[in-house]
Amino acid sequence: MVIGVSEGFKKQQELVGVGYKPATRGQLLDLVLGYSHHFVFELPKEIKVTTKQDKGGNPTIILESADKHWWDSCSKIRSLRTPEPYKGKGIKFTDEVLRRKGW
Question: How far apart are CA 78 and CA 69, in angstroms?
Answer without folding.
Answer: 16
